[in-house]
Design brief:
With about 190 residues, this protein is of the alpha+beta class. Helix content is about 30%, strand content about 15%. The chain has 5 helices and 7 strands, in the order ββαβββββαααα. The strands form 2 sheets. It has a 5-stranded mixed sheet with strand order 2-1-5-3-4, with helices on one face. Strands 6-7 form a two-stranded antiparallel sheet. The longest helix is centred in the last third of the chain and has 17 residues. InterPro entries: 2Fe-2S-bd (IPR002888), 2Fe-2S-bd_dom_sf (IPR036884), 2Fe-2S_ferredoxin-like_sf (IPR036010), 2Fe-2S_ferredoxin-type (IPR001041), Aldehyde_Oxdr_Iron-Sulfur (IPR052914), Beta-grasp_dom_sf (IPR012675). It holds the Pfam family Fer2_2. It comes from Lysobacter stagni.
C-alpha cells in the first residue's frame, strides 16, 4: 500500500440538476466517497466496496456505450469520481419531489410503491434498488415490452442487486406491479 498521497485535480460534477465544483478531488477517489465526504449526499450506500452488491448505484443520463441515450446504472464504489466529469448524475436524493425549502412533498412512484408494499427490511440496499427500478421504468417508457416478458425483464433489471436481508421477493413483486400498472410500459396496454 502506497503512503504517497494521491494527486488532486479540479472536478465539477452535475448531480441532481445542480452543479458542484470545481472541487479539488484526488485522482483515485471513488464517486461514492465524493458524494459522502465532499457533498453531504449520503443516500448512496457504500456496501461491498467491490461493485458486487450495487447498493452504491447511481444513475447516469448520458450516452451509453452502445450509442443509445441513458439512463444507465453505474456503481459508484468502483468508479472514480473523475469519470463522471460532465455527465449528468442522479442519486437517490433526486427522486422525491421537494418544495422550495427542500422538504420532501411527494415520493417518486418507485419509492412510494416500495413503501406501500413493505419491500425492504433494513433498507441498506434500497437506494440501489430504487435506482435500478427507476432506470427500468424509464427505459420501458421509451421501449415498451410484451406482457409475457415483464417477469423476465424485472428479473434481469434487479438480479445484479444484492439484499443482505434476502428481501428480494417484495422488491420483485413491487417492480412487476409497477410495470404492469404504469400506462405505456407494456405493449398492447389498454391503460
Amino acid at each position: 500500500m502506497s503512503t504517497v498521497p494521491s494527486r488532486k485535480r479540479p472536478l465539477t460534477l452535475h448531480i441532481n440538476g445542480r452543479s458542484f465544483g470545481p472541487l479539488d478531488v484526488p485522482e483515485d477517489m471513488m464517486l461514492v466517497d465524493v458524494l459522502h465526504e465532499y457533498l453531504g449526499l449520503t443516500g448512496t450506500r457504500f456496501g461491498c466496496g467491490q461493485g458486487e452488491c450495487r447498493a452504491c448505484t447511481v444513475i447516469v443520463d448520458d450516452d451509453t456505450p452502445d450509442g443509445s441515450r441513458g439512463p444507465r446504472e453505474v456503481r459508484s464504489c468502483i468508479t472514480g469520481a473523475h469519470y463522471f466529469a460532465g455527465k449528468p448524475i442522479r442519486t437517490v436524493e433526486a427522486h422525491a419531489r421537494r418544495d422550495e425549502a427542500g422538504d420532501i412533498v411527494e415520493l417518486s412512484p418507485v419509492q412510494q410503491a416500495f413503501l406501500d408494499h413493505f419491500s425492504f427490511q433494513c433498507g441498506y440496499c434500497t437506494p440501489g434498488f430504487v435506482n435500478a427500478a427507476t432506470v427500468l421504468l424509464e427505459r420501458l417508457a421509451k421501449a415498451p415490452i410484451a406482457k409475457a416478458d415483464v417477469e423476465a425483464t424485472v428479473l434481469e433489471a434487479l438480479d445484479p442487486h444484492l439484499c443482505r436481508c434476502t428481501g428480494y421477493v417484495r422488491y420483485y413483486q413491487t417492480v412487476k406491479a409497477l410495470v404492469l400498472g404504469t400506462p405505456g410500459l407494456v405493449k398492447g396496454d389498454a391503460s
